[in-house]
Write a structure and sequence with these properties.
180 residues, alpha+beta, OB fold (Dihydrolipoamide Acetyltransferase, E2P), six-stranded antiparallel β-sheet, three-stranded antiparallel β-sheet, Protein Abitram, Abitram, actin filament binding, actin monomer binding, nucleus
């Protein structure tokens, strides 16, 4: 039995996230150190955008003052209305489209990006009422948004993303001191 099997044997069952989603990562989003995003990709193509556990918002002692889905004067992600089986009307987002801005209690601001191209299906309005969900349950109830990539792009959207092992390697290198 390898470590993963042994770990699973000790736990009751893998979480819904670990069971049905593949974790992908985008490290240092837009060149900003440690502003890491996590994309949970379901087998049905849906992608849930969350904060990676290494994101500064989730670091010790931080609290969220506000979350704003108003990206600019003319663009609010809250105005996103999707209808029907084919999910018509959702805003189309590109890899670097801002989804929301999070302001922490120390007034530092972080912009959360879509990380992938696709149609914005929903934003999580629950985190507006209960911002602590973002801190307490970032992969589940504290998610940022749900995006559906185009069918023909669903295989290629992960080309610019990191697998968990690659992401962990980047994170471990951050902790090492750099020689002069």
């Amino acid at each position: 039995m390898d470590n993963a099997e042994q770990k699973n044997a000790n736990e009751e069952a893998p979480s819904v996230i670990d069971r049905y989603f593949t974790r992908w990562y985008r490290a240092d989003m837009k060149g900003k150190a440690c502003e890491d995003h996590c994309i949970l990709q379901h087998s049905n193509r849906l992608c849930v955008i969350t904060l990676a556990e290494t994101h500064p918002v989730l670091q010790e002692g931080r609290t969220v003052k506000s979350i704003n889905y108003q990206i600019s004067n003319g663009c609010s992600r809250l105005n996103n209305k999707v209808t029907g089986k084919s999910k018509r009307g959702g805003q189309f987002v590109t890899d670097f489209a801002p989804l929301c801005r999070i302001t922490c209690s120390d007034d530092t601001q972080y912009t959360i990006y879509s990380c992938i191209r696709g149609r914005l299906l929903e934003v999580n309005e629950n985190i507006l009422k209960t911002p602590n969900l973002l801190l307490e349950k970032p992969s589940t109830e504290g998610y940022i948004a749900v995006i559906l990539p185009k069918f023909e792009e669903s295989k290629s959207i992960t080309e610019n993303l990191l697998r968990r092992e690659e992401f962990e390697e980047i994170v471990s290198k951050r902790g090492q001191s750099h020689p002069p």
